[in-house]
Design a protein that fits this description.
By secondary structure, the protein is of the alpha/beta class. The protein has one domain: Rossmann fold (3-Layer(aba) Sandwich), CATH 3.40.50.1820. The chain has 7 helices and 11 strands. It has a 9-stranded mixed sheet, sandwiched between helices. Strand 8, helix 4 and strand 9 form a beta-alpha-beta unit. Helix 1 packs across helix 7. The longest helix has 17 residues. It is globular. It starts with a strand and ends with a helix.
Length: 228
C-alpha cells in the first residue's frame, strides 16, 4: 500500500484502487469505477469546483466489457470483445473486499455512499442499485443505457434501495449515429430519468455539448458534484 497525504493506493485481486480521503469526519463516500487510471484528473476537477467534502474511491484496471456488463451481449463493433456479463462477480468483490478496506481508512461514518461512472461504468452504477443496499445515490455520466434488455430489466425489477438522488448526463450528439443500438441512448436515458422521478428519486438530467468522448473528466466531476 502507498500512502501520500490524503491519497492511499492499494490493490485487491487485479484491481488498482486509489482513495482520496477527505480531511473531514463523516464525509460522503463516493465510488468511481474507471477504465484504467487512478482518477487524479477527476479528483482535481472536483477540487477546482470546491468539492473537497468527500472521500473518493477510484477503482481502476477494470476488465471493462466483463466487469461492467450485467449479462452477455454481442459486441456492437466487429473488432471489439463481446460483453461477457461479469457485473455480479465484480460487485461482490467491490462490496465484500474493496469497500470494507477503504472504509477502514477514512474518518468516521460516511454521511451517505454513492456509486458513479462514465459509459459502461454509468450503466453498472444503475445496475448496482438493483443488487445491493450499500449505495444511497448514483451518477451515470454518458451511461451505456443502450445495453440490450436493460430498460426492461430496470422497469420489471425493484431497486434494493431506491436512490434518494440520481444524476444522468449525456452528450447532445451521442444519439447522432448510424448504429441502431447506440441511437437509442438519449431516448433511454430520458425515459429512465422520468421513471426514477416517478418512483420518488430526486433526478437531475443534463445534456452536455459534444459526443461520447467530449470532456469526459469534466463531465465525470460534474456528475459526482451533483449528487453530493
Amino acid at each position: 500500500m502507498i500512502t501520500n497525504n490524503n491519497k492511499e493506493k492499494f490493490n485487491i485481486k487485479d484491481k488498482k484502487i486509489t482513495l482520496y480521503k477527505s480531511p473531514d469526519i463523516n464525509a460522503p463516500f463516493i465510488v468511481f469505477n474507471t477504465f484504467e487510471d487512478d482518477g487524479e484528473d477527476v479528483y482535481q476537477a472536483l477540487k477546482n469546483m470546491g468539492c473537497t467534502f468527500l472521500n473518493l474511491l477510484v477503482v481502476g484496471n477494470i476488465d471493462w466489457n466483463h466487469d461492467m456488463s450485467p449479462w452477455y451481449m454481442p459486441s456492437i463493433y466487429s473488432k471489439e470483445k463481446s460483453f461477457s456479463g461479469g457485473a455480479d462477480e465484480y460487485l461482490r468483490l467491490l462490496i465484500d473486499d474493496i469497500l470494507p478496506k477503504a472504509k477502514e481508512m477514512i474518518d468516521g461514518e460516511p454521511e451517505f455512499t454513492g456509486i458513479t461512472g462514465y459509459s459502461l461504468a454509468g450503466l453498472f452504477a444503475v445496475y448496482a442499485m438493483y443488487k445491493t443496499y450499500v449505495f444511497d445515490r448514483l451518477a451515470s455520466m454518458s451511461g451505456s443505457l443502450w445495453f440490450h434488455d436493460f430498460m426492461e430489466y430496470c422497469k420489471s425489477n425493484d431497486c434494493m434501495k431506491l436512490p434518494d438522488k440520481i444524476y444522468f448526463s449525456l452528450g447532445d450528439k451521442e444519439a447522432n449515429t448510424r448504429n441502431p443500438i447506440l441511437k437509442t441512448v438519449e431516448d433511454n436515458t430520458r425515459e429512465l430519468s422520468e421513471y426514477f422521478k416517478n418512483l420518488g428519486s430526486e433526478v437531475i438530467f443534463e445534456l452536455n455539448p459534444g459526443n461520447h468522448f467530449t470532456d469526459t473528466i469534466l463531465r465525470s466531476a460534474k456528475g459526482i458534484k451533483a449528487i453530493l
